[in-house]
């Protein structure tokens, strides 16, 4: 991977210099693999304590506007890390909660599904609910299929791609994970939606957007932040990412956030 390592002194100085100059910073963070190490049981994958400490400091600054953008359901994401002045986007942005408004926003709510799409969705849900080595997470909007084996994931992903081709659903893959979710919405659109809401509600224009994420689903977000800072968290993968910078793991994320929060 030819991207630049964030914690190299030259790169870190460049990033912190950009942050210092910005009037308003919209900091978008993925959760699993970015703030929290991966766990066999997702409900035990808590953010590193030092990360939570830094975020609690950052949210007190009027300059920073924090958003968590995750594939987890919104209700589950909020249980994993509780921040007061933070915007939450669950299910890849299919359900959003802004800190300055009441209730949950469903930006893709009015999408209608054709008969074939609904039929194939139900068929897949029933099939994998009975398949050994696969844990089915029903998110309401779609399915997250957690595989014990990467080989099985690859094999099943091909079948799902063929099944949902030209339907109202799309198939996306992660680490031992395949998601079936509505076509036409992802983290990139969620980031733009949240950005617009922040600018409109707080009446601000001069912003710098920063996105830190670790998965293929975060590529949507990297691609929409053309003039901001994009950081890929590598973990054990070597994704051909469009992010400008990279970190090695959540411990590196903690180091970066500690550096940023320490300068406030």
Describe this structure in words.
The structure is a single chain. The chain is of the alpha/beta class and 264 residues long. It folds into two domains: 4-108 and 185-262, HAD superfamily/HAD-like (Rossmann fold); 115-182, Alpha-Beta Plaits. The protein is 36% helix and 22% strand. The chain is built from eight helices and twelve strands. The chain has helices at 9-21, 49-58, 74-80, 115-129, 150-163, 187-202, 219-224, 250-262, and strands at 4-5, 24-29, 64-69, 86-90, 95-97, 134-138, 143-147, 169-174, 177-182, 207-213, 229-233, 245-247. It has an eight-stranded mixed β-sheet, sandwiched between helices. Strands 6-7-9-8 form a four-stranded antiparallel β-sheet, covered by helices on one side. α2 packs parallel to α8. It is globular.
Strand order of the largest sheet: 1-12-11-10-2-3-4-5
Extended strand count: 12
What is the number of independent domains? Answer: 2
Write down the Rg.
18 Å
Major pleated sheet:
8 strands, mixed
Uncertain ranges: none
Strand % is 15-25%
- Alpha-beta classification: alpha/beta
Terminal Cα span: 32 Å
CATH architecture of the largest domain: 3-Layer(aba) Sandwich
Under CATH, the topology of the largest domain can be stated as Rossmann fold
Q: Which range best describes the helical content: under 10%, 10-25%, 25-40%, 40-55%, 55-70% or over 70%?
A: 25-40%
Shape: globular
Overall mean pLDDT stands at 91
Contiguous helical run count:
8
* CATH homologous superfamily (4th level) name of the largest domain: HAD superfamily/HAD-like
Secondary-structure element sequence? EHEHEHEEHEEHEEHEHEEH
CATH class bucket of the largest domain: Alpha Beta
